[in-house]
Design a protein that fits this description.
Length: 352
């Protein structure tokens, strides 16, 4: 993911170290900002494992902080190598004295503006500040899930949230060309590209659902069209997920946000499938979802004015509290499975 042979990664107990030239630091930090499972990182000064070298590094760190207007500090030290000649308390005191002798800063152990940290491991490291990572679990530690990716705001956020829980994400997108535009399909590909920065190797499978949707429009009761379309998408997604060994489906549904997302209608849409359906946004309001979409970089793509197939042929008065048994009877009468299988055979794929 770092994509540069000059950048070295080294692992020790409880820490990863990345060694890179200063001019590569911006690239390294950009990559780290997109990796789930990392609680945070900091640029460090590595030095010889001697008291004089460590104290000198602390003074340089103090000078750097002073350039940025920091007036108060404290020192924290951790020694995993207990053979170091100073204990943690002595190291903190000696380093703080050296800083205040050379830099216009004072020690404040209760409410410092910044903390200079010392770690004595296989080498000695001195750093301050740091940046917060995404946290969560490393992608790939929680299995694989298939995201139903529309062109809207919600589903990309749902995919990102599940990547943050360690899940490898692939995506499936349904379009209904020529009733939806090529730009609408490209929007989904672009969204998958952003998500691929957080879930490396994300694949998007694009299905032409025009025949399925036209059959529903022609033969289903108008007020049930949206629910039945969602049921067909769930069936197609489950078949695709089984083929690529995904363990679940992921959607961007939020409880009662729209008519198809009432608790009864959610029961209808998943009534014919066996895979679990994860809905990480289920209790979030729209403002929270939009905020997260802006944070991860999908919002400006999602608001491009190209309709996806879910917005076509929307009934004026959709069913609000659907019954799963009724939904299944209506669905089975349409005999959609051959059309779904045809759509699956003709899928397009892109890899991010």
């Amino acid at each position: 993911m770092l994509g540069d042979n000059s950048i070295k990664l080294r692992a020790t107990a409880g820490r990863y170290y990345i060694e890179a030239a200063e001019e590569k630091s911006e690239h390294v930090e950009d990559v780290l900002s997109r990796l789930t499972g990392i609680s945070g990182w900091a640029k460090t000064r590595a030095c010889q494992k001697t008291p004089d070298a460590v104290i000198a590094a602390c003074v340089e760190e103090g000078k750097e902080l002073a350039k940025h207007g920091i007036k108060t500090f404290k020192i924290e030290a951790r020694r995993t190598d207990k053979s170091f000649p100073l204990n943690s308390y002595e190291l903190c005191c000696n380093s703080a004295d050296a800083i205040t002798d050379e830099v216009n800063m004072t020690v404040d152990v209760r409410n410092p503006q910044d903390i200079i940290r010392i770690e004595i491991r296989e080498k000695a490291y001195v750093y301050s500040g740091g940046k917060k990572g995404l946290g969560g679990l490393p992608v790939g530690t929680a299995g694989r899930g298939l995201l139903l990716l529309s062109g809207g705001i919600d589903s990309p956020v749902a995919g990102f949230m599940m990547a943050g829980r360690g899940m490898n994400i692939d995506a499936i997108h349904f379009h209904s060309y020529p009733y939806t535009s090529k730009e609408a399909k490209q929007k989904a590909v672009d969204l998958s590209g952003v998500l691929g920065k957080y879930s490396l190797g994300l694949r998007i499978f694009i299905l032409n659902f025009t025949k399925v949707q036209m059959r529903i429009k022609e033969a289903a009761p108008a007020d049930w069209m949206t629910i039945i379309l969602r049921m067909a998408m769930m069936e197609a997604s489950e078949k695709a997920a089984t083929k690529i060994k995904s363990k679940c489906l992921i959607t961007g549904e939020s409880l009662s946000q729209v008519a198809s997302q009432t608790i009864e209608n959610l029961s209808c849409t998943q009534s014919r499938i066996k895979l679990p359906v994860l809905r990480p946004l289920i209790g979030l309001n729209k403002e929270s979802i939009i905020k997260e979409a802006k944070k991860i970089g999908t919002y400006n793509i999602s608001i491009q004015p190209y309709e996806d197939c879910c917005t076509l042929f929307n009934p004026k008065h959709p069913v609000i509290h659907g019954n799963p048994q009724t939904a299944c009877k209506l669905y089975e009468a349409l005999e959609l499975e051959p059309l779904i299988d045809e759509a699956l055979k003709g899928y397009e794929e892109a890899v991010n």
